[in-house]
Amino acid sequence: MSTLTRRAFSRQTLGSLVTFSLLETLIGGDVLADEVKPVTAKWLAELDALGRDVRGQKLKQVDWQKKVEELMARVDMQDLLKFIDFDKLAATAKPRERGELSLRAKFPQVEGLPTDLVFGHQIFALGKNRSVVPHGHDNMATAFLILQGTFDGKHYDRLADEKDHMIIAPTIDRQFTVGECTTVSDHKDNVHWFKSTGDAGFIFNIHVLNVDAKSGKRTGRVYIDPNGEKLAGNKIRARRIKEDEAVKLYG
Ligand SMILES: [Fe+2]
């Protein structure tokens, strides 16, 4: 390593399959010093690799969901919270009167963690009884991981699109607490809605935008009102609404 600068190390190993094993080897010594948060850096790098695979169509979206959920279940929560400087972030966050406040977590620069992550990330802060309002997604794969608090979490499959409505069916409806996770794709559990039931709720969110370049759909949220006409087979005809109405109704 003495003849290899850090910059060269990054350039030569980023995105390559040897990154993680090399990183582990280096962490074993004292090359990367004590600024490194090895557990979470590796975890995020794995998340990034899965994101690249799903975007490159090497991984089906539903398989990405399974793998991300497995990875999320292995998170070292204490290390992740340190990594994103959560205490400072939570202390300065002032939740909005309705809906979620989106905070940008700054990741420390750590060797081996790609700086150009394929996924976007944010932390949602929510006061008691406030919600990440019900919405579906176009051309997006996304995941929620609860960092603090308790939530009523709901997901729905998006079965069909009509001009002004979306036909949905409930898939997940339960309480969530710290360390628990759910995922969204165009093919499974596309609609979600999380209501904070404790005093202060924080959710870590990652999102892979334009997950399918061939879909032709603009990546983004599609707000709906899940309190719609009940149809046979546990289905619901949910009205498509604008964000401000969703926040007014459910935020
Ligand atoms: Fe979402």
Secondary structure: elements and pairs:
Elements: H1 6-13, H2 19-28, H3 38-55, H4 61-73, H5 77-83, H6 86-92, E1 101-103, E2 120-127, E3 131-138, E4 140-148, E5 150-161, E6 165-177, E7 181-184, E8 191-196, E9 200-209, E10 220-231, E11 235-240, H7 243-250
Antiparallel strand pairs: 1-2, 2-9, 3-8, 3-10, 4-7, 4-9, 5-6, 5-8, 6-11, 10-11
Helix pairs in contact: 3-4
Fe (ii) ion binds at residues 135, 137, 142, 184, 192, 221.
Per the CATH scheme, the topology name is Jelly Rolls
Name of the level-1 CATH class: Mainly Beta
The CATH superfamily turns out to be Jelly Rolls
Helix count from the secondary structure assignment: 7
Report the oligomer: single chain
The helix content, as a percent range, equals 25-40%
Largest sheet composition: 6 strands, antiparallel, barrel
Tell me the number of structural domains. Answer: 1
Biggest sheet: strand arrangement: 3-8-5-6-11-10
Q: Spell out the helices and strands N to C.
A: HHHHHHEEEEEEEEEEEH
The CA-CA distance between the termini, in Å, is 52 Å
Q: How many strands?
A: 11
Q: Which shape, going by the Cα principal axes? A: globular
Q: Which structural class fits the helix and strand makeup?
A: alpha+beta
Q: Mean pLDDT, nearest integer? A: 88
Supply Rg.
19 Å
β-strand amount: 35-45%
Q: What small molecules accompany the polymer chains?
A: fe (ii) ion
